[in-house]
Structures are given as C-alpha cells and as structure tokens.
Amino acid sequence: MNIIPFQFNNSSIRVIDKAGEPWFVAKDIAEALEYPTAYKMTRSLDADEKDAQIVGTLGGNQEVTVINESGLYSAILKSRKPEAKTFKKWVTKEVLPSIRKTGGYIAGQENDSPEMVMAKALLVVNSIIEDKTKQIEEALPKVEFYDKVTHATDAISVGKSAKILNTGRN
C-alpha cells in the first residue's frame, strides 16, 4: 500500500494506491469539503465507492474509511460549498493526471518541464541505488562466509560445529 500525501489549501489529503487505483481517505476529503463528518459524507455512497483500509498514523495502525474516484465525485457533487468546485478542478486537472502519469503527486510539479521531472526522478533513483549498494556491501562478508561453509569439501556437521564453538545446535 502506497500513501500519497498532498495539500489542498490548508487541508492535508491522503491518497492510497490500491491495486493501481487511487482511494482517498474519507476524513481528509470531508474536512476539505467542509462536511460535518466523514460518516455523513460517505453514508449515501454506494458500497463499491467506499471501503475500509488500515493506515499507519502517528497513533499506530488505524482503520480508516476510503473512497474511490467515483465516491470522490459523488461527495464533491453533493457538497454545496464553493470550495467543492475549486477542489474538483484541482483534483481532476492536477492530482489525478499526475498520479496516473507518475504514480504520485508533488505540489508545484505542474510547472516542471519533462526534463525537470526526469531530473528529480533520477535523483530519487540514485538515492535508492546508493542505499541498496550499502546494504549489499554490509551483507557481502556474510554471503561469502555462507558460500565457503556450504561449498567446503571438508565440511563438518552442525553438531560438531556446535561442540567446537561451545554452543548448542540451535
């Protein structure tokens, strides 16, 4: 599960990637559209427009209600607040196209050239490669030892090894 956070005005919105489809945390959408509660916003949605999802929060893992794209549009259309129209345009013109194109949303990227987006992606990729290289370097001595032990021609049993090392078999 991949959580994609973004900001709309002063509201923090979390989007969850479920099987390649964006699902929005209902509480976040309710606050952005000024519904009294997420329950009041979601109670009239169809069953296939909402679901429960375990999400990591500061208080630990919690079950939250999430709504899919269809549920999001239903919530927006039912809202009588002027923010709903602005929110709908922002979601449909910036957020969803960005998620579909790049798998995420970064505020301000709508003005980036394709070259700038690629440059940012390369920085992320290089950072990931560096981390993985460090992990491999740390594991290398263990791997080499394992290979030597398992391919030794004069191998001894685990029981004999335990006696030599003065430890138990387990």
TrEMBL record:
Enumerate the Pfam families for this protein.
ANT, Bro-N
* Limits of the Bro-N domain: 1-103
* Domain of life where this protein originates: Bacteria
SMART domains, per database record: Bro-N (SM01040)
Q: Which GO terms describe its molecular function?
A: DNA binding
Q: Which protein are we looking at?
A: Phage antirepressor KilAC domain-containing protein
> What is the source species?
Spartinivicinus marinus
Q: What is the lineage of its organism?
A: Bacteria, Pseudomonadati, Pseudomonadota, Gammaproteobacteria, Oceanospirillales
